[in-house]
Amino acid sequence: MSTYSSANPVPVDRPFAKLLHGRQGLADIAGIPPVSQGSYPSDKLETYLRAAAILGLDSADSRQVARRVRHLGYILRSSRFSDRISWRSGLGALDSLAPIFDEPEGLVDVEGAVSGLNVRLVLGGSVDPDRSSWRISISGTSPNLQLRVDGVAVGSPFSTSTPLPATPVPGSGRSIVASSSVSTVSWSAELRIPYSGDFSGILAAVQANKDFLLRMQPAQEYLDAVAGDIAEDAVAAFILSVDSF
After folding, report:
1. What is the reported pLDDT for 8?
2. What is the mean pLDDT of residues 221-234?
3. Which carries the bigger pLDDT value, residue 96 or residue 214?
4. Alpha-carbon torsion (45, 47, 48, 50), positive or negative
5. Does residue 122 sit in the same domain as residue 159?
6. Same domain, yes or no, for 164 and 214?
7. Residue 120 parent element (H or E)
8. Are residues 170 and 118 in the same domain?
9. Domain carrying residue 111
10. Disulfide engineering: 116 pairs with which of 4, 41, 133, 181, CB 3.0-4.6 Å?
11. What mean pLDDT comes out for the span 109-120?
12. Terminal C-alpha separation, the chain
């Protein structure tokens, strides 16, 4: 993973490198900035972690975090503070070079596919707003073929004579249906769903944490923007307050 040291007085991709301090698993996702591996004073690190949580960057799902970073970059560029962005992850050209909404969706990166195994998705169920990808696998020998989600067995074992009925992948709004005419299976894939970041939720979280914002002692114009009527300016002001802390 590309990193920079916090000793660098002008970080390559601030403030996201601070907000993503120490995160792993982002290196292969297009458009994501280098993550800081340097040490910060404990009071600053705690502030960055709390700010990341407020902005929805604390998800265990690296792909969801990457998409939220891109969403927040778009918000910054749409605000009246857009001229203050100089870091690479905030550049508008990035959305043309690697648009987040054009990424493959559904079952991708499939391994172990065989002609006798049929796996398909069925829509339905609730969606976890903090996730957009899951690891899916089917393995075993009939009559104990087992579906697993992120390594955890889901649903009952099935066999070559009894297909797997629609089995929900928790939080994805999708279910897996499978059947197999081969007795031994070792199959895996990643389930990806479209990013559905809720801007109103981001704004509400920022405005609900004004006391936290004050502790960063931001410029008055940022305080005024968070309290103002322009949503993009409010969220951008919060992010830039982290940058200046």
Report:
1. 46
2. 92
3. 214
4. positive
5. yes
6. no
7. strand 117-127
8. yes
9. 106-192
10. 181
11. 93
12. 25
